[in-house]
Write a structure and sequence with these properties.
- The protein has a domain of 65 residues.
- It is 43% helix and 13% strand.
- The protein has a two-stranded parallel ribbon with strand order 1-2.
Length: 94
């Protein structure tokens, strides 16, 4: 799960863990990713936390390698990471 440290990503991670998925919480926010992973572990789930910047190819390759090393395979990939700069909300106009 990219962007899994907080917000919707965190909720996706927790929900997948409740369904017995092995969850890799990946985020540029290392401490927050670790906290989410620890929540999963505390509930009896399986999880690791990874600090990675998915805008960098080498980091995404490392993310896949670490996932395979920890869990042996990748069944689901949720691309939730996002960065927003300069977005302004404007009223809808017809």
């Amino acid at each position: 799960m990219t962007g899994g440290a907080r917000g919707l990503g965190k909720h996706f991670c927790l929900a997948l863990a409740q369904e017995n998925a092995k969850v890799v919480v990946t985020d540029i926010l290392a401490d927050s990713a670790e906290k989410t992973s620890l929540e999963i572990l505390a509930e009896g789930g399986q999880s690791i936390a990874l600090n990675a910047d998915v805008t960098t190819e080498s980091e995404t390759i490392r993310m896949a390698d670490e996932t395979l090393k920890a869990f042996g395979r990748i069944d689901i990939l949720v691309n939730n990471a996002a960065l927003f700069y300069g977005i302004t909300r404007k009223p809808y106009q017809i």
